[in-house]
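Table S2 (continued). Query chain:
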Amino acid sequence: MNDITKETVENQLRATLYPSLAMLGIFLVIFIACTRFMAKTFGAGHFLAIVFYVMLALLLLFIAMLIGRIVLIEKHPALKPFGTADQLAERVNSGLHNSRYVAASADGKSLVTLITDDFIVSGSELVGLLELKNLTKLHATFVPEAFAMAHGGQDAVEKNRTRNASQAPGAVPNANYDYIIVTNTDGKMKRFSVKHGDMEQVLNLFASIAPHIAIDPVARNI
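Corresponding output:
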């Protein structure tokens, strides 16, 4: 598996800003056209033309600020809890060498999900790393019968069977992966992918290393 680098983290953060930049660029083209129309139709000194000039200036300011955030991505607020992109990458790489569970992409080159004794992180959102100590609840889109029986009894098993029987063929978007959804102390929820055959291992792992997390033995929809 490829190592996580500073560039990996920063490129992920930049990618979250590009859609906003593209949208502002579209608005810029529209406002330029509207401003020219107003100036030609009513004159550059007309109230409506002035309003469009001001809005165009504000739009250019927002674009400049967004470009500044992209260029100075190392100062992104999402990195603050981890220090720097380098420090976050180093922590994830250290976790890979001391992992409790790792799911990789089909080609084995990219990280999908990593669980260590201390944290869980998705390879597609490294700044979304969550400390296990800050998690309160966990539910999964699939719960193996052995786990359901051990943690919820026959009632949980029957509920899962009923749920599975009621699902239409093809209802699961990716048959290779199931998902766990965790809730932190702030009430925020985040989803992580788990290989279908690994769910029992992952649920037992959480029960072992993070017993403070309430694990629902009944499967839930995303």
